[in-house]
Amino acid sequence: MSNQKIQKPTLTGQRFKTRKRDEKKVFDPTQFQETIVQGLNQTGSDLDAVAKFLDASGAKLDYRRYAETLFDILVAGGMLAPGGTLSDDLTRTEFCLFTAQEDLETMQAYAQVFNKLIRRYKYLEKGFEEEIKKLLLFLKGFTESERNKLAMLTGILLANGNISASILNSLYNENLVKEGVSAAFAVKLFKSWIHEKDINSVAGSLRKVGMDNRLLELFPANKRSCEHFSKYFTDAGLKELSDFARNQQAIGSRKELQKDLQEQMERGDAFKDIIASAREEMKKNNISEQTMIGIVWTSVMSYVEWNKKEELVTEQAIKHLKQYSPLLKAFTSQGASEILLLVKMQEYCYDNIHFMNSFQKIVVLLYKADVLSEEAILKWYTEAHVAKGRSVFLEQMKKFVEWLKNAEEESESEEDEAAD
């Protein structure tokens, strides 16, 4: 055996230099800011020149990395510190949104600058929305004039679909709401939005992001009423927004009422208690009997799971409605309420195909239960019916209507004889 020491194997290899493109860049917006500020100072207040400068600079500068810095400069003239104040130690420009003229035409021109920039560099879309959200949270740090300009710009951008209405969530910040900043900002914003489009555009966008029922939250809790909202925005020249909010509030109240009615029925509450509770809500929320009978009908029909077989569902419906006829009767004291109930029944039987052959039998049941009068049925038959399933339901009702007419004529004849 050899006494020579055996060397242990070692790992050897070549060290590779890190590629330049793989090196992590240090976040340093200072140089970026200086370049943008210098360009804006050269273009001045010529917004067409500004748009061309931003378009060309995107090929040389890292917009993706410094999006927040870019938007801060375009809006406020320099980088913003937390709270909305300008950073003192950095370069800034006097040519920005906040130093521009405070009028709609100028704000429309600025909206075009942002629109062109984001259309050219699509990746800036998300960063721009985040910037607007941040700016709204910083509102207290801006002057009234700066807030007004930002509000007008935001309204125009919303009208043109450049940003989502979800950015308005920032306005529900507790401090902004408490100090009245949110409501004042909203006035300017909605005015410019409606000026660009209309109230339907506002309503559609708010519904899309589930904010159509949250407008009252622009006010602190002690002022969060439909009456206060309506007066505030009507006085500010936004009656159509007031009407929209009032309508949304009414829809919300009706949905809540329907939910309460169904819960009461599920618990098996006495009809007198359900009726008393519903009438209290009618008074409280200014709900008409016509609206209430629609809510009651929907609640009664939603409360049960219906048989899928057409031959069985009619029998089930008759039994169910016979039980709940006192509830329906309580809210059909007016002829208009009876007509509306008949229309609701017609639409329901048409929309739920298994009920197509049940309509006439339901009408007869409610007639016998004194929920529907012959006058209401005859008026529905001759003029008040709607288009849904009209030919089918009129044909179903033909014999019963003839019977009603004959009964009415016989009654009149007997009255004449008695008078003689």
From TrEMBL:
<dbReference type="GO" id="GO:0016020">
    <property type="term" value="C:membrane"/>
</dbReference>
<protein>
    <submittedName>
        <fullName>Basic leucine zipper and W2 domains 1</fullName>
    </submittedName>
</protein>
<keyword id="KW-0805">Transcription regulation</keyword>
<keyword id="KW-0810">Translation regulation</keyword>
<keyword id="KW-0010">Activator</keyword>
<feature type="region of interest" description="Disordered">
    <location>
        <begin position="1"/>
        <end position="22"/>
    </location>
</feature>
<dbReference type="GO" id="GO:0005737">
    <property type="term" value="C:cytoplasm"/>
</dbReference>
<feature type="compositionally biased region" description="Polar residues">
    <location>
        <begin position="1"/>
        <end position="15"/>
    </location>
</feature>
<keyword id="KW-0804">Transcription</keyword>
<dbReference type="InterPro" id="IPR051245">
    <property type="entry name" value="eIF5-mimic_regulator"/>
</dbReference>
<dbReference type="Pfam" id="PF02020">
    <property type="entry name" value="W2"/>
</dbReference>
<dbReference type="InterPro" id="IPR016024">
    <property type="entry name" value="ARM-type_fold"/>
</dbReference>
<dbReference type="Pfam" id="PF25504">
    <property type="entry name" value="HEAT_5MP1_2"/>
</dbReference>
<dbReference type="InterPro" id="IPR043510">
    <property type="entry name" value="W2_5MP1/2"/>
</dbReference>
<dbReference type="InterPro" id="IPR003307">
    <property type="entry name" value="W2_domain"/>
</dbReference>
<dbReference type="GO" id="GO:0006446">
    <property type="term" value="P:regulation of translational initiation"/>
</dbReference>
<comment type="similarity">
    <text>Belongs to the BZW family.</text>
</comment>
<dbReference type="InterPro" id="IPR057397">
    <property type="entry name" value="HEAT_5MP1_2"/>
</dbReference>
<feature type="domain" description="W2">
    <location>
        <begin position="247"/>
        <end position="414"/>
    </location>
</feature>
